[in-house]
Amino acid sequence: MDVTERKRADEERERLRQAQADLAHVSRVTTMGELAASRRLSRLLRASQRNSVCAGLRAINADHSCAEAASSPMVVTLLTCARSACA
Predict the structure, then answer these.
(1) Alpha carbon distance 36, 42 (integer Å)
(2) Is a pLDDT exceeding 80 seen at residue 15?
(3) Helix (H, G, I), strand (E, B) or coil at 29
(4) 61-78 per-position pLDDT tens digit
């Protein structure tokens, strides 16, 4: 192999190494973007759920005819947990 062929082979290896590095970078950035979007969606869903529970609590607190239903042990536990989330 002469010097020209060796130089060409070295340049080709360097281009391949750079292409692989670029691909790995794009893959990492894409994964981080998907993870960030997933976390944002999760936070939005939790906030929506918390707001729904809080709205239900306000309705139960405002409607005294719900007092009997709200006194069951399961509902009391749920409401206790929900109140701490809504505070």
Answers:
(1) 10
(2) yes
(3) helix
(4) 666 565 566 566 666 666
